[in-house]
# Entry
Amino acid sequence: GFSGGKCDFETNQCKALHEFNLQPGWIRRNGLSGIGPPYSDHNGNESAYFLSLSSEMKSSSATLRTNVFLPSDEEHVCQITFHYWVTQMSGTLIVGLQKRSEDTATNIWQVSGELQSQWQANTITINSTEKYEV
# Structure
């Protein structure tokens, strides 16, 4: 993967999620878009961009896939930290791990809509002896 790389959506390109604009349901927006909360990113910046599910997608699911990451070992453990905003209306956010030898992804973390509407952060640690996507 990208060691210590930060990934945002300011340039409309996030190297880890290079295909996000091909995935139906995801829109790139900021807090000034007039769509509703959140009205800023996790740093409180109103003009900073983040990805959001479009309102038409409320009843179904949309996927984001990373690039292919190289295998981890004792020296190179992969940690991914991401910021998320989940409301009671927006269902469940699931992180899956798909290894090269497997046909489907395995769910490794999930969170469902919560009462407090605020940005939260989570870090997942991934150990994989083969190439994988998240």
Summary: The beta strands are 26-30, 49-53, 78-84, 92-99, 106-112, 120-126, 132-133.
